[in-house]
Specification:
Elements (H helix, E strand, L loop, with lengths): L3 H17 L2 H8 L3 H15 L4 E4 L2 E4 L1 H24 L7 E7 L4 H15 L3 E7 L6 H4 L3 E6 L7 E8 L1 E5 L1 H7 L13 E3 L5 E5 L2 E5 L5 E2 L3 H9 L4 E5 H10 L3 E3 L8 E7 L7 H14 L1
Helix pairs in contact: 1-2, 1-3, 1-4, 2-3, 5-10
Amino acid sequence: MRNANVEIEDLRTFVELAQAGGVSAAAVRLGISKSMVSRRLARLEEDLGVQLLTRSTRGAALTEAGATFRDYAARICTEIDVARETILPAGDLRGRLRIAVPLTFGPTHFAHMLAEMARRHPHLHIQTCYSDRFVDLIAEGYDCAIRVGYLEDSNLVARSIGRIYGKLVASPGYVEAHGSPETPEELGSHEALMQGTEAWQLMDGDRIVTVRPHGRFKADNGPALVAAAVAGLGIAYLPDWITHEYVVAGALVPIMKRYPPPPAGAYVIRPPGQHPARKIRVLTELLVEYCD
């Protein structure tokens, strides 16, 4: 009989494999080699005496036995995590914390706090994915995510960690060539720099006005939109922490100051569950302290 730690890691590997749908994706999630994933799965199947997954060129699919066993394995792993947290000394965190962070803000505004989290908890393994794409926390196996902006309705649990203020900006050259809109209605005749087909919200006193601008330049990254605005391609709707240095330098100027965007938020998002893991609670408290 192998020791319990190895058996638990075999279970965790199987759960990740079942969620990821393939050895390569599970290896990335776990931060181990593909050969290690395969060895752990083979060891678990040998112990159980059943085949849990079928392999093909398209990935891995659960067998009937594997689908049944997955739910039990996931519950066991969760219970062990809770038990470990209960008996650990106060403040001591172990295991893995996998976080999705926006590329636009993450490296400059959150990376040093994640490094501080790792410094305070030397037995905690932190894996961070920096991307501006929408990450499916459950399907891709993340413990939590930091998200910035306006949240869409979902079954995920959100905890606010701070507020974000922004403004509409354009280059002095754009304003000189095309003028500056004075009202939300006038935005329709200007080039907007957007992430996609999003709507912009503006405050008219206490009332929120929604406008749907249009433009020929789109990017899913804040710094790319700033570069386009500085180049005089149009009007951008961006957080202050991206545009501040350009406004101070005179490369961008605020416009439509009578109609500012409403404050957005920064959040820690996690999958649904009665109680968040202590490592997520500790991270959230650290981020709230930082943002305040």
